[in-house]
Amino acid sequence: MNGAYIPTIGLEIHCELKTASKIFCGCPNVFGAPPNTQCCPVCLGFPGTLPVLNRRAVEYTVRMGLAIGAEIPAFSKWDRKNYFYPDLPKAWQTSQYDLPLVKGGRVAFMTPDGEKTVRIERIHLEEDAGKLIHENGFTRVDYNRGGVPLMEIVTLPDLHGAAEAVAFLTELKSIIKYIGVSDVKMQEGSLRCDVNLSLSRPGEPLGTRTETKNLNSFSAAARAIEFEIGRQTEILAGGGSVLQETRRWDDAKGRGYALRSKEDAQDYRYFPEPDLPPVVLDRAEVEAWRRALPVLRYERAGRYTREFGLSGYDAGLLTGDRAVSDLFDGTVALGANPKKTANLIMGDVLRLGREEGGEDVAVGLSPAQLYGLLSLIEGGVIGLAAVQKDVLPRIWNTDIDPETFVKEAGLAQSGDADEIAAAVREIIAQNPRQADDYRAGNEKLLAFFVGRVMKATKGKCNPKTVNEVLTTELKKR
Amino acid sequence: MSNIHSEKTEEILSLTLIEAGRRIRSGALSAVEAVGAAFARIGATAGLNTFITLDEAGAYRAAAAVDARLARGETVGALAGIPVAVKDNLSTKGLRTTCASRFLENYVPPFDAAVVERLRDADAVIVGKLNMDEFAMGSSNETSYFGPVLNPADETRVAGGSSGGSAAAVAARQVFGSLGTDTGGSIRQPAAYCGAVGLKPTYSAVSRFGAVAFASSLDQVGPLTRTVADNAALFSVIAGHDRRDATSAPDYQFLGYPRWESLKGRRVGVVKEFFGAGLSAGVRERIERALAVFESLGASPVEVSIKTFDAALATYYILSCAEAASNLARFDGIKYGCRADADGLSDLYYRTRTEGFGAEVKRRIMMGNYVLSSGYYDAYYLKASKLRTLIKADFDRAFSVCEILAGPTAPTTAFPVGRRVSDPAENYLTDVYTVPVNIAGLPALSVPCGRDGGGLPVGLQLIAPARAEDRLFSFAQCFEDETGGGERL
User: Which fold has domain B3-238?
Assistant: First the structure.
């Protein structure tokens, strides 16, 4: 291996936006419907049909730009990218060539080596194509996906490795989800990326780059990057030169293949789309979108470590999903202890949320409910075990007040000193040998007695009180 | 058919569109009778080859429905019962729409074009689909897969194009009015050749939804009729905003036009470049007479210049071919239209498009892809886009000193069938006075302006600033009244 080569990577990320309808017609934007049931003459490109822009898709793309601190030009336009393929009904993709909706911006993210920043070149909006289905020697076309709004985010070549690229993609995905413009369901292909990669020695100009297209998972992107670094390194180390080409990645086989060379590159014959007027954005509207942006994960995680002393790992867990982070912030805002709130969320709330939501954690609890639970624990009314077992599952996805629920279900711990004292005396009487050992100095045995008392009272006693009463009673003899 | 019957047919068909409509609404004429007269005439003059598809069943059904509603005293639309026809690039639900191409020989649209919908909403009776140049590419109707349309004034000559069927059907009195499309003169030039009134509206005045695109930034749908008033009546039905066309103007309205007693104090611009070497003597003589009529009505002529005139034709062919190459790429054999037997995908594209398209369409697709290809884009498409801005500016300047421009619609009258088929470049020259108007997005009207020495119709083109269709009609009405529709010129 020649360790002197540094890989330089730029990404193009395609993300389907979750607008209610498609970008240029009224067809529903849904995944998984039977083939060719979500199309109309417009998205099928029938002769004489014309596009009508879905303004919501523009709003979503601009919001993405605002979230990464990009410039939002007042004027943007549409262009036709012309090429023949059966999944492209009009034989052109309506896209944006020289005047995209979003210019510039940057995404900061954390890597094991510290904070990194990737500069974004542009974000433009375009339409997705349909899908080819190859089976039994035939090729069928499903046009349901054709016309789904697709946001393309193009980075500058600021990445230098697979792990870094994945960390960036993870951060980008989080931003997209925080601002709510896409579900980013990888298995549904709603996020796909192309990898541009070249090798160079430090201080030397970048080498010839290749583009690996259409990677539809972060792990595929990582593997494709590793593969391509290895392949190019081998070529250069052997004295060869890398060819500028477009490549395909076969994730099942774990290897990439050349698709076409620079000479065979398609000429897309871009020109301004005459059927759509340019997009002229209203400054006041853009400002309103900017003001409505949520605080993003990176900033929230930083605040959690700085202000609440949480570890980076915990802060990452809490901010992985906006709903979880919103729950945390809301609960802390009500006056809850941040660390105790974090612990309860990272334990039980996340477990329940993952069971229900899978890739996206579902949050079935309001900050007020979580605050109520924490108060009950804090006040010794109920123990953590009972919260896990009896309370959380029952108030999840309801608006039931935890305190009322605990009271009505008879789950409240007994704080009555007489009742506890009676139980304690009984346990001591039943275990005279252990009591003597304790008095002889084996203080570890206190836990044994606490356990017995709790078991005898079915956990309804406040452990703190049990502790106090036991200490007193054991000293009595 | 008895003589009495055909006399009756003649009488009905000699009515103006407006008068026929009035009689139908008053009960003096039934819609079914009007439609019967139209089909009788279409049958008797079938040699003109004006129609690609007739819809007798649909037309009689629509006419009978109008008659029934009138009998019940119900209100009916502005064009109730009037037989009209539309160019075969305007989508008609359930009725094949071929664009005069082999490719779409059996294509039946699942929806109506916006203008067809408006005709139906106004209770007009659509009798069929009119012949045209293939995909509207041509100036003589000779590129049609279904054969050329002959000129009713002289059947050895072309009807013009691309809306040749629309102009000839109106001139031959087969229908009271028709719709055509105009990308570079395709309504005005055949109107001039056949002796009809043809309007190319302001770009964005009429919805293009459902009109099969040739060059999207230039295409407009417009009416062809025998009189100016009929034309305005048809235009008022099809004009106005349609949210399915993003380029349609949200605030455009056409509410009729004032009738002027004279043209006193009005300034008529005469574009000096329109009277250059290419203009035939016969047409020039008629147009000069027309300008004299304007003067006699009180208008003062003003000489103006469109300095970019020489570049307009090249600009037009670059822009229109580029857009056409892209617009026609959808005809790939995958979804609709014809599909050739083929071995593999690229062979499928190659064979289907080779078999489906005629020579002129292929020529323009190739020119369009050439001017858009990397390395040539700046020299052609980009330069043409800049010229578009300059041409618009030239018209703006001209309209700062006059209200309207008047000149020839085409440099010559209709030429013999077959003469120019072999020379596309010469054919393109027939558009020389009409294309600048499309490039600038302006409205223009061609009105009959008498006949040349050979007895062939001459067209006078009036051009107005954007959205000033009312002004075009007012001028044209004065001229029509004064000259008896050009016959007394």
Answer: Amidase signature (AS) enzymes (3.90.1300)
